[in-house]
Design brief:
Blueprint (H helix, E strand, L loop, with lengths): L2 E5 L8 H5 L3 E5 L2 H6 L6 E5 L4 H12 L7 E5 L1 H4 L10 E4 L4 H11 L7 E4 L2 E4 L4 E4 L2 E2 L4 H12 L4 E3 H9 L8 H14 L7 E4 L3 E4 L4
Parallel strand pairs: 1-2, 1-3, 3-4, 4-5
Antiparallel strand pairs: 6-7, 7-8, 8-9, 10-12, 11-12
Length: about 210
């Protein structure tokens, strides 16, 4: 069982997944109070569901402290799209996550595992550091773009339908349509650049396929 520190606006409900897990959650509205208790905290949860700009400031403040407590963003599907790696968070958790997923993510950030990398063709995806490169050049991705690229790279050569991508990347409880997948694929290709965006292939009327080699 872990001791969690949730810092963010007052009055926001705790996600059901965290309510059902046996972890202890201390709630703070002021980042200074949270920092004062880092020595007894296993994981810091930063609530960015309603005030993402303030959440970014909190992440940077907490991660700059000399503490071993990892920082995990608590996000909605809407706010997750604006999060980038320069926030300084170690991982994220959506408010629609199942108890199993929430527990797995919390266990992962507290496990002290070595960095795990996925390598396919010119792409390298570091699952722990939440970084991705193409031909050695870093990609500036949002969390959703990162998760999408990670899932594609992890399944090279496989045709992935829009419904599969929507459920695996956005989650089964996401209510947006499959058009969301197309929009994020377009943004991801733009960031990858014309030299390498062809590795993500469109399969007409079905979905997408990642090819490690072209």
């Amino acid at each position: 069982m872990s001791r969690l520190a949730l810092v963010g606006p007052a009055g926001q409900p705790l996600p059901e997944a965290l309510e059902l897990l046996p972890h202890t959650t201390d709630r703070y509205t002021e980042v200074a109070d949270c920092i004062d208790h880092l020595d007894v905290t296993d994981v810091v949860l930063v609530d960015c569901r309603v005030e993402p700009a303030r959440a970014k400031e909190i992440c940077l403040q907490v991660s700059s402290q000399t503490s071993n407590a990892p920082v995990v963003l608590l996000a909605s599907a809407a706010t997750l799209s604006v999060v980038t790696r320069d926030w300084g968070a170690d991982d994220f958790l959506t408010d629609t996550a199942t108890p199993l997923e929430a527990d797995a993510r919390l266990r992962f950030v507290t496990s002290g595992q070595e960095s795990r990398e996925l390598v396919a063709g010119p792409f390298t995806v570091d699952e722990e550091a939440y970084t991705a490169t193409v031909a050695g050049q870093p990609l500036d991705l949002t969390y959703t773009e990162f998760e999408l690229l990670k899932f594609l790279v992890a399944h090279p050569g496989r045709v992935l339908t829009r419904d599969v991508l929507l459920s695996e990347v956005w989650g089964y409880d996401y209510y947006g349509g499959t058009r969301t997948v197309d929009v994020h694929i377009r943004r991801l290709r733009a960031k990858i650049g014309p030299e390498y965006d062809g590795h993500i292939q469109t399969v007409r009327s079905v979905g997408y396929r990642f090819q490690a080699q072209r």
